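call fold(seq) -> tokens
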Amino acid sequence: MPCTPLKTYPQLRKELERVRRQGYATNQDEFVVGVAAVARVVRDRQGQAVASLSIAGPTARFDGRRWIEPLVRTADEMTGILGFRARQ
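ret:
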């Protein structure tokens, strides 16, 4: 489903809350028409965001839903290598 570009600060805040809640971000035709992507944060030992892992492709062929689970798993493995342990 195509994304609507964020145009206001309240829209941005709402989107950031959604991304934090679900644990990953998605993008379809939002920044560049014809490109879709999925991304997740990578954290260091202190829990600080130090990187992100993303995968992108042409909107016509890229099904982001297919990539969510492997991308989240891999970003979490990277986070673990850096020493962060999420609270349960």
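The mean pLDDT is 91.
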